Amino acid sequence: MSGLQIRGLTLELGARANPTRILRGIDIDVPARSITGLAGESGSGKTMTGLAVMGLQPAGSRLGGTIAFEGTRGRVENLLDLRPRAMNSLRGRDIAMIFQDPTASLHPMITIERQLTDGMRHHLRVSGREATERALGLLERVKVPDPATALKKYPHQFSGGQLQRIAIAIALASQPSVLIADEPTTALDVTVQAGILRLLRELCDSLDLAILLVTHDLGVMSALADTVTVMRYGEVVEHGDRYQVIREPRSEYTRSLIDALPQVPAPDAPPSSRMDTD
């Protein structure tokens, strides 16, 4: 099965004699046709794990372990062994990433059409006309209104939710098999969040994607992920099926994250018997 298999992933910064250990031996499977959730508080190492997969770790950092990648073309490689040129050919083509803030990941002075088609023309070697046709289809797929007009616009002319859909389209433009989504709904309001989450689920199922969903929000995770991995201080503290992790957490840390979620009463719950006497 295509996807990622991360084993013993370590990442260190600073002097070798006294390093700062950011990742401390991470094991995660990210199979195709599945959404693998990676949860944890700020500083847990979850985002750094995604960046390490993309080869975007901080300059001067040291990586250890293996990140085995099997794409749709059948080859298996350890991403940590690849030279920069080989990694550049995979990044965007076979493995793509959606970032938290689409306004930071999209160029403000370049049209949506060019931002969608440049990667396709480079990685897929298609003509400009074919790239534009593919771009229209992608915008339709991610449900951006009036795709033909949207192609001619610039990022500032879209809402936050529409920008995130465009960012997803750009990530999918070169037909990757692995998609890393780093806090893709954090900057959006609740209603827009739900639409983006439904879109990711639909794309995973219809395109056989292997999605690594990075988020601090276990509420988002419980609604979307097939399996959940919880990190703390650069280590995995819990992993399992989402129902098992959410309903019967084994780690005290995971339990504390779940307890911190807002408690919404069920629609058919009886009203409280306590009366306000003030």
Major sheet strand order: 6-7-8-3-9-10
How would a crystallographer describe the biggest sheet? 6 strands, mixed
Give the averaged pLDDT, no decimals.
Answer: 88
Q: What structural class do the secondary elements suggest?
A: alpha/beta
Give the beta-strand count: 10
Distance between the termini: 63 Å
Oligomer: single chain
Protein model, in words:
The chain is α/β, with parallel strands linked by helices and 278 residues long. 37% of the residues lie in helices and 25% in strands. The N and C termini lie far apart (63 Å). Residues 264-278 have low confidence and may be disordered.
Short recap of the structure:
By secondary structure, the chain is α/β, with parallel strands linked by helices. The chain has helices at 46-54, 84-90, 102-105, 112-123, 128-141, 147-151, 160-172, 190-207, 218-224, 242-247, 252-259; strands at 3-13, 20-31, 34-39, 62-70, 76-78, 95-98, 178-182, 210-215, 227-232, 235-241.
